[in-house]
Write a structure and sequence with these properties.
Layout (H helix, E strand, L loop, with lengths): L4 E5 L6 H11 L4 E2 L3 E2 L14 E2 L2 H9 L3 E7 L2 E6 H8 L4 E4 L2 H10 L4 E6 L3 H11 L4 H17 L5 E4 L3 H23 L1
């Protein structure tokens, strides 16, 4: 059985972070990749755990050096996944990458066994409420995020699995079942 990179994507506010935290609790063999960003930390976020926060110049230097598995610019910030971290972790275990749809598709191009899982909200209305309750977005940023939802929902068709996050425990259990199935598939191929 080989270790696999697992991409978790979905619109802002859909609960990706909460799902990933629960997956890590229920399956301690998984590790989470830490993305790098040029955006400012939100209250409670910790550099090196939530994101690795760097200047735009540092980020651009790393792009030039080919140090990213994927990167993207949106909402006035650059985001990327350090390739070296993911490849190092894959030597030991499966790695969860909580990244957007563009990043997920780019990751699959570079790591052939990447599993793509898209998290769907129960409804667009509930997604809007979740974003408003976070209180971290200006009205303009909220409008931009909602505009991006249309694109992400369109791109979800290129993902291997779609999981509805209408109930956290059910969604997490569904993803764990998917991982078990995919690991078994990998194991069968290696035998």
């Amino acid at each position: 059985m080989r270790n696999i990179p697992i991409v978790i994507s979905g619109p802002s506010g859909v609960g990706k972070g909460t799902i990933v935290k629960e997956l890590l609790k229920k399956d301690p063999t998984l590790v989470e990749s830490v993305s790098m960003t040029t955006r400012a930390p939100r209250p409670g976020e910790v550099s090196g755990k939530t994101y690795i926060y760097v200047t735009k110049e540092e980020f651009e230097r790393r792009i030039a050096e080919g140090d990213f598995l994927e990167y993207d610019e949106h909402f006035s910030g650059l985001y990327g996944t350090p390739r070296s971290f993911v490849e190092e972790q894959l030597q030991k275990t499966s790695v969860i990458l909580e990244i957007d749809v563009v990043g997920g598709l780019n990751a699959r191009k570079l790591l052939k066994d990447t599993l793509l899982i898209f998290i769907d909200p129960p409804s667009i209305e509930e997604l809007v409420e979740r974003l408003k309750k976070r209180g971290t977005e200006s009205e303009q940023a909220l409008r931009e995020r909602l505009q991006r939802v249309k694109y992400e929902v369109h791109m979800r068709e290129q993902y291997d699995y779609k999981v509805l996050n209408d109930d956290l425990n059910r969604a997490v259990d569904e993803i764990l079942a998917i991982l078990e199935k995919e690991r078994k598939k990998e194991g069968d191929q290696d035998d």
